[in-house]
Amino acid sequence: MHGSGQDKMIRETEKPCLLVVMGPTAVGKTGTAIALAKLCDGEIVSADSMQVYRHMDIGTAKPTPAEQGLVPHHLIDIVNPDEAFSAASYMERARAAIADLHRQGKGIVVAGGTGLYIRALLGGLFDGPGADEVLRRFYAAILEREGKPGLYEILKSKDSRAAATIHPNDAARMVRALEVLELTGVSIVDQQQDHGFAQRPYKVLKIGLRVERPLLYERIEARTDQMMAQGFLEEVQRLLEMGFSEDLKPMQALGYRQLVRVLKGTLELEEAVRSIKRETRHYAKRQLTWFGADPEISWFDAGDREGIVRSAGRFLGEKSL
């Protein structure tokens, strides 16, 4: 027992220090993360559930090649759209990247708007994730096509332990079990147990970016128009031509889902763009609700670069910032 306090202090100082930039879509996380990374000789670890996919660049608002050239980025373009990827996959790969950067003595900036991925990285997956509308639509389509017996067979093949605890007529619980497995990589049966994910492996400064709601909505509308001008529709067409099915989870995501319908001739382009803008506003509101529930976030106006840098400098203890 002797010296345990000193041992704990040593362990604390050995923990990697993370600057975590978060906030709603279109608020300006990429620019802020790049500025912070350049100031602390750091690299960026993305926390975005769509930017992990190759070939999906415009619709995911991926940092441009020029932006990625300014500062090395990790966890971008790491899987194909038809490969399984979950919050558990993200946690494993992001923690490996952070360990590597820490060994190199690099500054580490985590940036993204996927709250579940950030929570998994910083504290684990001991809470069940929130609902995923894309997944629920996906399994609702299966339910409509194949009925409860078909859905139950899928559950049995993917998570036999959950299937053993859920009645074959309980469609809602079947969908939830499949959703939890897909999002976390962990069976819902294990969700009530402690898997050792509750550790805090990092020292963290959470930097939340915000702008007034009307300005955020203006940015969302302008960025949607910019995505269309950059070739978002052509990007979706290329994905389909490459053989990536419209039924894949990432192809059901916001923007991609609407533009697939345009290409199939079941939705007018103008209406698709209006739908993308409307759903993106709703998505931003959900992000704000998620992040607003975290008391550890220090909130800044997105344009307050000086205040953000000053706070990061104090946290890192580097007056050079």
From TrEMBL:
What are the recorded Gene Ontology BP terms?
tRNA modification
Highest taxon in the source lineage: Bacteria
Assigned EC number:
2.5.1.75
List all membrane-crossing ranges.
Answer: none
- Residues annotated as binding substrate are T25, A26, V27, G28, K29, T30
Q: Which Pfam families match?
A: IPPT (PF01715)
Q: Which GO terms describe its molecular function?
A: ATP binding; tRNA dimethylallyltransferase activity
Q: Identify the keywords attached in UniProt to this record, alphabetized.
A: ATP-binding, Magnesium, Nucleotide-binding, Transferase, tRNA processing
Q: Which reaction does it catalyse?
A: adenosine(37) in tRNA + dimethylallyl diphosphate = N(6)-dimethylallyladenosine(37) in tRNA + diphosphate
InterPro entries annotated for this entry? Dimethylallyltransferase (IPR039657), IPT (IPR018022), P-loop_NTPase (IPR027417)
Q: Where is this region: Interaction with substrate tRNA?
A: 48-51
Name the residues annotated as site: Interaction with substrate tRNA. T114, R136
Q: Which residues bind ATP?
A: G23, P24, T25, A26, V27, G28, K29, T30
**Cofactor(s) listed:** Mg(2+)
Q: What does this protein do?
A: Catalyzes the transfer of a dimethylallyl group onto the adenine at position 37 in tRNAs that read codons beginning with uridine, leading to the formation of N6-(dimethylallyl)adenosine (i(6)A).
HAMAP family assigned? IPP_trans
Subunit comment: Monomer.
Q: Known NCBIfam families for this protein?
A: miaA (TIGR00174)
User: So what family is this one in?
Assistant: Belongs to the IPP transferase family.
Under which name does UniProt file this protein? tRNA dimethylallyltransferase
